[in-house]
Amino acid sequence: MADNTLIPIGELARLTGLTVKTIRFWSDEGLVTPADRTPSGYRLYAPDAVLRLGLVRTLRELGIDLPTVRRVVRGEVTIAEVADTHAAALDVRIRALTLHRAVLRTVAERGTATPEEIQLMTRLAQLSAAERRTLITEFIEDTFAGLDLGPDFRPMMHAAMPDLPAEPTQAQVAAWVELAELVQDGDFRASLRRTAIDQAASIAEVGAPDADSHRALAALLRERTSAVTEAGIQPGSAEAQPVVDELAAAYARHSRRTDGPEFRAWLLERLVNSNDHRYERYWRLLSTINSWPTTPTAMPAADWLIAALRARA
Q: To the nearest whole percent, how much of the chain has pLDDT over 90?
């Protein structure tokens, strides 16, 4: 190749927009080899060095390491193979960054968090699917151990597992972190177990109500209390009495008992014991994680009925 077809390193830098220092470094790394040198020792490059340097720069901008770039320019691997490998690696990194961002956003929304709490949230966010299932399974088994809550209860609880998608949203990650913290809360577990003990005792006495009856009762409670709330009827008022009577009678039928003062005292105690809003929060967090439809809340309705029964106790 004649000397006048070769490109000095300074001219090559101008043609490519790279610095002389960068071209020299990449030359030393074997990514683009000088075709010759001047009598003074300056490097001279063949015209195809412009294209080669453009390829190297593109691969480096995509985050591909120098040893891999060297293998590409030497023809040891194809660009397609490298792209596939690095795309997969980027998927992993993006998932990790999504988890970290969700943790930071959760910390920011809470306002205060100790370093220990931040570390815990980060660890919870990074749990595998199997580890998430193990955490929830342990919560279910510990909370409801030894209690007969009917044939459908445990299968229902075990079937409802958190299932984060491969690319979760910030809301899903934040919901998982909150759910994981909730199921490890000893006070929540104790509250839920007290409710479960009451339910198991009732089942042992009169049998388990069927699921359709339970859903119908919950719908009736929401419907009636929503109507009186919208009408501005206070729980302790005389106008609320017909609604209280209707709901108490419905609960008596549902629990296979007879309505009356003794039953209403029993009902009030059961409603108070089971009115832990964290249990509904548990299911709402699961719905967010698993992209399930959100069910109407029953807690305001239960609050209204509790206040109404207390006003008449």
A: 45
Burial class (CB in 10 A: 0-12, 13-18, 19+), 240: buried
How sure is the predictor about 212, in pLDDT bands with cuts at 50, 70 and 90? confident
Contacts 24+ apart (CB under 8 A), 273-278: 273/194, 273/195, 273/198, 274/195, 274/198, 274/199, 274/302, 275/299, 275/302, 275/303, 275/306, 276/188, 276/191, 276/192, 276/195, 278/182, 278/185, 278/188, 278/191
Tokens 């299968």 belong to 155
Mean pLDDT of the chain: 86
Give the residue-averaged pLDDT of 268-287. 91
Sheet with 43-45, side-by-side order of all strands: 7-8, 43-45, 36-37
As a whole number, mean pLDDT of residues 114-139 equals 78
CB within 8 A of 152, min separation 6: which ones?
Answer: 211
Long-range contacts of 208-217 (CB under 8 A, 24+ apart): 208/149, 208/150, 208/151, 209/254, 209/255, 209/256, 211/152, 213/254, 214/254, 217/250, 217/251, 217/254
Give the helix, strand, coil percentages of the chain, each rounded to 5: 70, 0, 30
Please give the distance of CA 297 from its chain centroid, rounded to a whole number.
21
pLDDT for residue 89 is more than 80: no
Work out the pLDDT band at 111, boundaries 50, 70, 90. Answer: low
Domains of the chain from N-terminus onward: 3-74 (1.10.1660.10), 121-311 (no CATH)
Rounded to the nearest 10°, the torsion over CA 82, 84, 90, 96 is -130
**What is the torsional sign of CA 73, 79, 83, 84?**
negative
Distance CA 279, CA 273 (A): 12
Beta-carbon-side half-sphere exposure of residue 152 (alpha carbons within 13 Å): 7
Q: Which of 52-66, 95-109, 212-226 is the least confident region?
A: 95-109
